[in-house]
Amino acid sequence: MNEITVGILTISDSCFEGTAVDSSGPNLTTLIRTMQSSSLKIEAVYNRCVPDDRHKIEDMIEYWADELDVDLIITTGGTGFGPRDVTPEATRTVIEREAHGLTHLMLAESVKITPFASLYRGICGIRGQTLIINTPGSKKASAEFVQAVIKCIPHALAVIKNIDVTVKKDHQVIQNESHQGSCPHSHSKVDISKVAHRQRNHQHLYPMIDYEVALNLVLENCISTESESIDLS
Predict the structure, then answer these.
(1) In this structure, what are the phi and psi dihedrals at residue 42, rounded to the nearest 5 degrees?
(2) CB of 150 within 8 A of CB of 34?
């Protein structure tokens, strides 16, 4: 995969009506270009703004995915608890497969920054050969969500498009990195085989006892209750 096209879809009534300035969309455009490398180029980035209208969101995603063959669509806005927040519902209607892992990764990373990230209801999914990612509406939050998965996106697109050479190359890089970093103490002079056999000076707070002794102690200290047998036949 050498070149990809990206669609940044801002979903906001106020931005669409001109009563607010869209800062999230342009910021995501700048951020997504950081994915560029010697093996991946951003051929074009489409930017559009639609209101919080489920059908308009669906129509734009379908148009970009089906007519323009956009590889990656990132939405910003409409993922919260507000009555007009319908981006997840619109996205779920048009995708064919959901990408739960990307959603969980974005949420897990963002919750580390603020507990309010738990109010995010967005999803990620696939339509044809297009990857679709929902992000929150604020400039800061949308950037944090994309940054959480930005390293995964090129590989995800390669898998979606079944580009075997790229997929195998990515897997080889991952394996090499895991081997190189599998043991951060590989140069330590400590003899690991002796660590578990060293004498310990502290005493256990709770001494070990036999199973039978433990069971008897439990039975002796249990409060017995009356039981009643019921014939269910």
Answers:
(1) -90, 105
(2) yes
Instruction: State the residue for tokens 């502290």.
Output: 202
The answer to whether 103 touches 163, Cβ cutoff 8 Å, is no
- C-alpha 70/C-alpha 160 separation (Å) is 13
The DSSP string of 127-189 is ETTEEEEEE-SSHHHHHHHHHHHTTTHHHHHHHHTT-HHHHHHHHHHHHHHHHHTS-TTTT--
Name the stretches of the chain with pLDDT < 70: 1, 38-39, 164-206, 224-229, 231-233
* AA identity, residue 5: T
pTM score of the predicted model:
0.72
DSSP string covering 100-131, please? HHHHHHHHHHHHTT-GGGGG----EEEETTEE
pLDDT digits (tens, 9 = 90+) for 79-88: 999 999 999 9
Residue 95 dihedral angles phi and psi, to the nearest 5°: -80, 160
Pick from 23, 70, 72: nearest CA to 49: 23
